Automatic annotation (TrEMBL):
Keywords, in A-Z order: Signal
Keyword Signal recorded: yes
Protein name: Venom protein
Annotated organism of origin: Strongyloides stercoralis (Threadworm)
Domain of life: Eukaryota
Endpoints of the signal sequence: 1-23
C-alpha cells in the first residue's frame, strides 16, 4: 500500500513540476545563460529537469511513475546525474563536499 501511495505521490509531483517549469521557459531559454550565477544555476537545473523528464515521458509513453515507482525513481536519478554533471560550474556552493557528515 505504501509503495502505491509513493508512486502516486511521485507521479503527482512530477506532473506539477513539469507544468510549473514549462511556465518559466522565458526565464531560461535553452543554450543561453543569464548574467548572474544564481540565475544560471536555476536555469541549468530547470533545463536538466525538462530534458530528462521529457526523455523519460517520450520513452515510456506516459508520465514517469504512472506505471511503477521504479520509473519515477529512475527518472529522478537521471535528473540528479544531469544536474551533477552539467550544473556544477554554476552551482558551486551547493555541490561542495560536506566535511561534517563524511565521518558518519
Amino acid at each position: 500500500m505504501r509503495t502505491i501511495l509513493f508512486a502516486i505521490l511521485c507521479s503527482f509531483i512530477l506532473l506539477l513540476s513539469l507544468r510549473g517549469i514549462h511556465g518559466n521557459d522565458d526565464d531560461c531559454p535553452d543554450g543561453k545563460t543569464p548574467e548572474s550565477l544564481k540565475e544560471s544555476c536555476k536555469c541549468c537545473k530547470m533545463n536538466c529537469w525538462n530534458a530528462k523528464a521529457d526523455e523519460a515521458a517520450n520513452e515510456l509513453g506516459h508520465i514517469p511513475g504512472e506505471g511503477s515507482e521504479d520509473e519515477a525513481l529512475k527518472t529522478l536519478t537521471l535528473i540528479k546525474k544531469c544536474v551533477m554533471d552539467k550544473c556544477t560550474k554554476y552551482c558551486k556552493a551547493q555541490f561542495r563536499p560536506r566535511p561534517f557528515f563524511s565521518g558518519m
